[in-house]
Amino acid sequence: MNKKLEHLFQEKVAGKIILVTGASSGIGLTISKKLALAGAHVLLVARTIEKLEEAQKEIEQSGGKASIFPCDLSDMDAIDAASQEILATVDHIDILINNAGRSIRRAVHESLDRFHDFERTMKLNYFGAVRLVLNLLPHMIQRKDGHIINISSIGVLANATRFSAYVASKAALDAFSRCLSAEVHSHKIAITSVYMPLVRTPMIAPTKIYKYVPTLSPEQAADLIAYAIVKRPKKIATHLGYLASITYAIAPEINNKLMSIGFNLFPSSTASIGKEQQLNWIQKAYARLFPGEHW
Fold it and tell me: Is 166 marked active-site?
């Protein structure tokens, strides 16, 4: 971020209470550190208590304030219990960042006997996020203030192949967010969707070809979220994300052909075909033409 935006970010979050899911690693951990450094009280939510404790310790050693709430965000009862604990600890939430997510890279024809992939992805990425919103929203409405930031995916805009389960779950959250946004507008609650491109985090590490394609760093991803906090827009995407969205809106067949080329250029994941993955120069060049896209 530039200095002006950094200054506005610090003004915006200093003294605020901000809940981040998936806060123990990757984008969630990076934005949590950034928020705490700017003076926010960060509520860290993730499944593994040991990782949460490490994150809390790191933040506190840097002079920040963090509280931890272990929770399996694919378990609706666990979300209800964690929400009650959170609202008993703090009197309100200023900003909710729904960042936790699960990604599965597998073509539909390779998933014919794996319906559970679609179920578990939807459970965490969509139902988990919605359940948390339902628990916290009444308090934001009562205060007539709040901001909900949902981390979506560039794949929703570009219709990423091999990510039907992941993209469908993010698209569901996207549609929910658009409907909710109009409902809470009069309560001065903002809803922002961040269409995140590929980010070099532990979530993409199992897909070895991603070592060779352009990605954002977790710090760059955190800057996109910081921008969302400052500006409170309806959506944030990269230039490629906006271009993909426009292309699909006015010339869907072109979008389809481009994605089909990518689908045929890149191999399935090691997990689904059991082979070592290598990229040739054509694949690398194509990936660079579409930086941040999921292949």
Answer: yes
